[in-house]
């Protein structure tokens, strides 16, 4: 649910509270109760439409998954931003490459010491990119 839906639900709750507090005063209770029901119906219809849209059938009756925007945790997006961040992003790039290496070959021989990691982070940009390229090529060959 989005913020507008929550605000609408809050309005419905407030209208329901007014209707209950009005008691026998039907001139206030009936319109307030109707407003509460109307607001809840709007939120319900919006949620049903949202759910129906994400499960709309495509050609040949195949159900298509909901379309999602690329999210911040997407590893490729993070890696791209890390390259754009210069020296600050190098630690993230190093972690990503190391994680890929561990998935391909979890041997302890491919681990780096803290001194080796620090030396990699201190390399000039071109040499760091060459190191990343070499590691990615090695990962590609291993898969």
What does this structure look like?
The chain has 143 residues and is mainly α. The protein has helices spanning 3-22, 26-54, 75-84, 90-104, 114-121, 125-142.
Write the layout of secondary structure elements.
Elements: H1 3-22, H2 26-54, H3 75-84, H4 90-104, H5 114-121, H6 125-142
Helix pairs in contact: 1-2, 3-4, 4-6
Brief account:
This protein has 143 residues and is mainly α. 70% of the residues lie in helices and 0% in strands.
Q: How many H/I helices? A: 6
Structural class: mainly alpha
Number of strands: 0
Helix proportion range: 55-70%
- How would a crystallographer describe the biggest sheet? none
The average pLDDT is 79
Question: Kindly, what is the distance between the CA atoms of the first and last residues, rounded to a whole number of angstroms?
Answer: 42 Å
Sheet-strand content, in percent, reads: under 5%
Rg, Å, rounded: 28 Å
Low-pLDDT windows of residues: none
Number of domains: 2
Which terms would index this structure?
mainly alpha, 143 residues, single chain, rod-shaped
């Amino acid at each position: 649910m989005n913020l507008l839906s929550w605000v609408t639900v809050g309005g419905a709750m407030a209208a329901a509270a007014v209707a209950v507090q009005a008691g026998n005063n039907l001139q206030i209770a009936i319109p307030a109760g109707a407003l509460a029901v109307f607001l809840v119906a709007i939120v319900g219809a919006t949620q049903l439409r949202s759910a129906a849209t994400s499960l709309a059938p495509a050609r040949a009756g195949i159900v298509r998954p909901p379309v999602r925007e690329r999210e911040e945790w997407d590893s490729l997006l993070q890696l791209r931003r890390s390259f754009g961040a210069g020296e600050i992003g190098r630690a993230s790039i190093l972690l990503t490459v190391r994680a890929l290496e561990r998935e391909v070959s979890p041997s302890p021989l491919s681990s780096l010491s803290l001194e080796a990691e620090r030396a990699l982070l201190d390399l000039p940009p071109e040499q760091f990119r060459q190191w990343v390229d070499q590691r990615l090529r090695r990962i590609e060959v291993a898969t």
